[in-house]
Design brief:
With 367 residues, the chain is of the alpha+beta class. It folds into three domains: 16-117, Orthogonal Bundle (Butyryl-Coa Dehydrogenase, subunit A, domain 1); 119-225, Butyryl-CoA Dehydrogenase, subunit A, domain 2 (Beta Barrel); 226-366, Butyryl-CoA Dehydrogenase, subunit A, domain 3 (Up-down Bundle), CATH 1.20.140.10. The chain has helices at 16-31, 39-45, 64-75, 79-96, 101-112, 123-129, 225-261, 267-289, 292-295, 297-322, 334-342, 352-366, and strands spanning 117-120, 137-142, 145-155, 163-169, 178-183, 189-191, 206-216, 220-222. Strand 4 and strand 5 (178-183) form a beta hairpin. The longest helix is centred in the middle third of the chain and has 37 residues, at 225-261. The radius of gyration is 20 Å and the shape is globular. The relative contact order is 0.13. It binds flavin-adenine dinucleotide.
């Protein structure tokens, strides 16, 4: 029976059953795939995928800000579950912002109900947009559709029960790259075993090989990746920031509890970081609300960098507040879990290295 030392009241508003389940399985979700298939159905049962989706499209209303808060709520318990949530909710967002309404109508019901997993294979595309990498999937025209070839080396939320994933694909020299969706059941789609990760092992993260995969013209999310990706990027990044926010909240809460119960030397530092976290989250949500980031990417990049730094500082403070006990290895050491979860924050695309380079380019162009 797993221990439940993470059952300390969180600041989040999660459904109580889900919160309990996540608290009990957070360690498993980080270390192995024992309960990885259960994550999507459980998040769906708690209504999380419908948050921020218009009622007219089967959702609960609200917008990306609400969805970001929900990702943060889950990340307070488990980054692996929050990352699967991010994959599913990002894919839902791609459908909401796609001009292909028939594709959205086809996929939204099963994704919102958690009957099908949704995955975002757009890191390569985001790096392509930043001029870092060429596209790793190509599409050749066929009658009424396309044939896909290539590889997506890192994709999360690839449930073995089945998934639908988004990828950007290069076409011909004359045509712009597109963003498409493909189903795991199609012949030629091969999911690897789970990647041998140091953490987040219950996130269903694997590689996908695409070998002569026939998709229809009706599976195109957008004909022009260069126009579509900047449109979806604020939501993509905001949802991703939800992970840093939740992790920071959990670590800072633990740090404060420990520090207050000892000599309190760190209390001021912890409270100052909590305050800064709150201000940074407010700036992020305001920018998302007024569409400011659609045209101004630089302030969004700075917020993503700052939130990632806060997450690193928060786990560092948790370590310092716990002292030597953080370094002991009981079965369920929440600090150790968060320490390894936090290592992922700077490397997920767009990585901090990439964002800093883009900001520098932006600075040079403006100077
Ligand atoms: C657990 C996990 C889950 C993931 N899940 C997904 C997913 O669901 N979907 C998805 O699409 N991707 C996913 N990824 C991929 C991830 O988002 C990154 O793309 C990947 O980790 C970074 O690619 P890389 O290791 O090839 O970095 P590299 O390309 O080797 O680059 C190393 C570092 O340098 C930076 N860099 C490289 N070239 C430049 C340059 N010219 N200018 C500035 N900076 C540069 C990179 O951003 C990175 O920080 C996942 C990764 C992990 C670890």
């Amino acid at each position: 029976m797993p221990q439940t030392s993470s059952l300390i009241p969180p600041s989040s508003q999660l459904d109580a059953d889900l919160a309990q389940w996540l608290a009990i399985h957070a360690d498993d979700l980080n270390r192995n795939d024992a309960v990885s298939e259960e994550v999507v159905p459980r998040l769906a049962r708690a209504g999380l995928f419908s948050i921020g989706v218009p009622e007219a499209q089967g959702g609960a209303g609200g917008d990306v800000r609400d969805a970001t808060q929900a990702v943060a709520d889950v990340a307070e318990y488990s980054m692996a579950a929050a990352f699967a949530f991010w994959g599913q909710r990002s894919f839902i967002q791609y459908l909401l912002q796609s001009p292909n309404r028939a594709l959205a109508e086809r996929h939204l019901p099963s994704l919102l109900a958690g009957e099908r997993a949704g995955a975002s294979g757009l890191s390569n595309a985001m790096k392509f947009l930043g001029g870092i990498e060429s596209l790793q999937v190509t599409a050749q025209a066929r009658a009424n559709g396309w044939r896909l070839h290539g590889k997506l080396p890192w994709v999360t939320n690839l449930r073995r029960a089945g998934f639908v994933a988004a990828a950007a694909v290069a076409t011909t020299a004359e045509r712009a790259p597109m963003v498409i969706a493909f189903d795991s059941a199609l012949p030629g789609v091969e999911r690897s075993d789970d990647l041998d990760l140091i953490a987040l092992r219950g996130s269903n993260t694997a590689a996908i090989a695409l070998e002569n995969v026939a998709i229809d013209a009706a599976d195109v999310l957008h004909e022009d990746a260069g126009r579509y990706l900047p449109q979806v990027r604020p939501a993509f990044l905001s949802l991703q920031c939800g992970m840093s926010i939740g992790l920071s909240r959990a670590s800072l809460r633990q740090a404060l509890i420990r520090s207050e119960s000892r000599r309190g030397a760190l209390v001021d530092t912890i409270c100052a970081l909590q305050q800064e976290l709150q201000t940074t989250v407010a700036q992020l949500l305001d920018g998302v609300a007024n569409d400011h980031f659609q045209t101004q990417a630089a302030p969004l990049f700075r917020l993503r960098i700052r939130l990632a730094e806060i997450a690193q500082q928060a786990v560092g403070l948790e370590l310092q507040a716990k002292g030597g006990s953080a370094y002991l290895a009981p079965d369920n050491n929440d600090f150790l879990r968060r320490w390894t979860e936090a290592a992922f924050v700077p490397v997920v695309t767009p990585s901090l290295t990439q964002l800093q380079a883009e900001l520098q380019r932006h600075h040079v162009t403006r100077a």
